[in-house]
């Protein structure tokens, strides 16, 4: 049964082409207040990570919202 669930989740994720749409879906809570990240933690759905858009999503989360590839003087140059 877990294989069937993983297959269906992978198909849903493959239907997305925009990362922002995917993030909005993953953050939506269910009727118990749990989001998709909670389910990813509770159940070993490793094959879902092989979906191409999940690679983009993980890379975006890994890079973060700010650029840290500069020196301290780059940030303080305007002062």
Topology:
Blueprint: H1 2-14, H2 19-27, H3 36-42, H4 52-63, H5 72-76
Description:
The chain has helices spanning 2-14, 19-27, 36-42, 52-63, 72-76. It is mainly alpha-helical and 79 residues long. The protein has one domain (2-76). The longest helix is centred in the N-terminal third of the chain and has 13 residues, at 2-14. The protein is elongated.
Detail the poorly predicted runs.
none
Number of helices: 5
Class from secondary-structure proportions: mainly alpha
- CA radius of gyration: 17 Å
- Please give the domain count: 1
Order of helices and strands: HHHHH
Averaging pLDDT over every residue, what do you get?
Answer: 78
Main β-sheet: number of strands, strand sense, barrel status?
none
What keyword list fits this structure?
elongated, 58% helix, 79 residues, 5 helices, mainly alpha
